[in-house]
Amino acid sequence: MEMISLEYPAIELPEQLRNRSLSIAIGHFDGVHRGHRNVIEQVVATAKRTGGLSAVMTFNPHPKEVLGRGDQYYNCLTPLAVKQSLFAELGVDLVLVVKFDHDFAAIMPEQFVDEVLRRLGAAQIVVGFDFNFGYKGQGNAATMKALCEPDIQVEIVEPLYDNGLKVSSTYIRQALSDGDIELATKLLGRPYELAGTVVHGDGRGSSIGFPTANVDVSLPYVMPRLGVFGISAVVLGKSYYGVLNHGMKPTFNKEDIRPVLEAHLFDFHQAIYDEPIRLQFHSFIRPEQRFSGVDELIRQIHADAQQAKRQFGVE
């Protein structure tokens, strides 16, 4: 899979890709959830059927962040590098990353079709039913169809529902905020994941018999609610089950600090400072709480670990 950065008005593919038939899925695709995959899989299937290339066009940064209508969109379910990896798993040939700035936000729907899609040589476009584009979102899926056809075919994918609610990035963000990990997993079609690096902590976990990997997350992920979770972690090329505390460590910290991620991995005893680690969230065990002392904390951590082991079937 190849990633190509584009910036309006200089919309142009590398020479070796010109004159190739492109089937393009368009959207921000934060989370690459089950609904997004319906759109992307249709593009991949169309490209295979027609002998062309499948492409995903996404925008960076998030349009709402640029337009000042959603500071929360700085944090993502899937930062750009993670989205690219998921697109590759779905069989996409090209990822077209369009820089979203105020100049791009000001173009009219007709310009988007003529000066972006036609210039790229698009043959088929696939969008979700709620897709909007152009200045102030004036264009929608029906507009796209009217402006593109007959020379560019447009397919509009209907929404995917779960228990009467549309599968969406907003719904998943809310599930993570609520600690509803099972729902987030169901909507994503996979466990929610964070990637980071193991860093030095205060060493308190080892001193009480529960050594932890302190994880620094540099990419702008959406973080789940504060509390304790059943997780799996991929480190040094292997996967391990464990428990993770996302919080302020209130038993020891009396002042407000930045929330930290501390993962205790079962039957794991290696030093992994500065190693990359991926955390997958499987269950919410309990909210974070302050304990009266170290002994009460140790008993609760043991109970948390036993609960997670039962859930994973690894007792």
UniProtKB/TrEMBL annotation:
Provide the Riboflavin kinase domain boundaries.
187-313
Pfam families per record = FAD_syn, Flavokinase
Indicate the enzyme's highest-level EC class. Answer: transferase
Domain of life, per UniProt, equals: Bacteria
Q: Which keywords does this chain's UniProt record carry?
A: ATP-binding, FAD, Flavoprotein, FMN, Kinase, Multifunctional enzyme, Nucleotide-binding, Nucleotidyltransferase, Transferase
Which Gene3D superfamilies did the record assign?
HUPs (3.40.50.620), Riboflavin kinase-like (2.40.30.30)
Sorted alphabetically, the Gene Ontology BP terms of this entry are:
FAD biosynthetic process; FMN biosynthetic process; riboflavin biosynthetic process
The keyword Transferase is annotated on this UniProt entry: yes
GO molecular function terms here? Answer: ATP binding; FMN adenylyltransferase activity; riboflavin kinase activity
Q: Which EC number(s) are documented for this chain?
A: 2.7.1.26, 2.7.7.2
Provide the catalytic activity annotation.
FMN + ATP + H(+) = FAD + diphosphate; riboflavin + ATP = FMN + ADP + H(+)
State which pathway it belongs to. Answer: Cofactor biosynthesis; FAD biosynthesis; FAD from FMN: step 1/1; Cofactor biosynthesis; FMN biosynthesis; FMN from riboflavin (ATP route): step 1/1
**PANTHER family attached to this UniProt entry:** RIBOFLAVIN KINASE (PTHR22749:SF6), RIBOFLAVIN KINASE/FMN ADENYLYLTRANSFERASE (PTHR22749)
Family that this chain belongs to? Belongs to the ribF family.
Indicate what this protein is called per its UniProt record: Riboflavin biosynthesis protein
Please tell me the species this chain comes from.
Paenibacillus algorifonticola
